[in-house]
Design a protein that fits this description.
By secondary structure, the protein is an alpha+beta fold. Among the domains are: about 1-50, SH3 type barrels, CATH 2.30.30.730; about 50-130, Arc Repressor Mutant, subunit A, CATH 1.10.10.1650. Helices cover about 55% and strands about 15% of the residues. The protein has helices at about 60-70, 85-95, 105-120, 130-194; strands at about 5-10, 15-20, 25-30, 35-40, 45, 50-55, 60. The strands form two sheets. A five-stranded antiparallel β-sheet has the order 4-3-2-1-5, with no helix packed on it. Strands 6-7 form a two-stranded antiparallel sheet. The longest helix is centred in the C-terminal third of the chain and has 65 residues, at about 130-194.
């Protein structure tokens, strides 16, 4: 599940998919009715990938909170945020994320979070199995990449040392050239004086 192109737009209800960049804004598509609209650059737009939920000691990315809801509901819908009371929403949030910060996470935030989850669940966009497979493959790829990174570093070091040695060589060749011209100019002047 990639949340980078899933957007929440201030003043608009629901979620939107990024379509394209315009000259003075962006074009988005609503998940609800698939209608496209232009959003001016002055409007506050947030990618769900950049949103996190406060806990007592850190921030949990929204993707992880969605995964917790997904596991609790076994892939089904969360409770209806509009129909639930504030107390029901808080109790539900405690089950999903027991360490959430009760002072900084408001009931309105919980409503948004649950409504976003339900929109993505309806669109069948909540897939966590692929990410687990990718996470399992990543350590093997990282071990392969480390030697490549070292090789790149050593090449740049060799290039730097080659550049460093070439600079003094250029200075040495320039210096004798100047002295030769000064000697020839003395020789030319000396026959004239005689």
């Amino acid at each position: 599940m990639d949340l980078k192109e899933t957007l929440s737009i201030s003043g608009y209800s629901g979620l939107f998919k990024f379509v394209s960049q315009g000259r003075n804004g962006i074009v988005v598509e609503s998940f609800a009715d698939k209608k496209r609209s232009f959003v001016p650059a002055t409007t506050k737009v947030s990618s769900l990938d950049d949103i996190a939920v406060y806990t007592s000691d850190k921030e949990i990315p929204l993707k992880e909170v969605f995964k917790s809801i997904f596991e609790k509901e076994t892939g089904g819908k969360a409770i209806d945020a509009r129909a639930a009371s504030p107390d029901e929403l808080k109790k539900y949030m405690e089950k999903i994320l027991p360490e959430y910060d009760r002072e900084r996470v408001y009931v309105s935030d919980i409503k948004k979070l649950l409504s976003w989850y339900n929109i993505l669940q309806e669109q069948h966009l909540l897939t966590f199995e692929e990410e687990e497979k990718a996470a399992a493959e990543t350590p093997a790829q990282q071990s392969d990449e480390k030697p490549e990174t070292g090789a790149i570093k050593s090449k740049t070091t060799k290039e730097k040392s080659a550049k460093a040695t070439s600079k003094p060589a250029e200075k040495k060749t320039d210096a004798p050239a100047k002295s030769k011209t000064s000697k020839t100019s003395k020789k030319e002047k000396s026959p004239v004086k005689k």
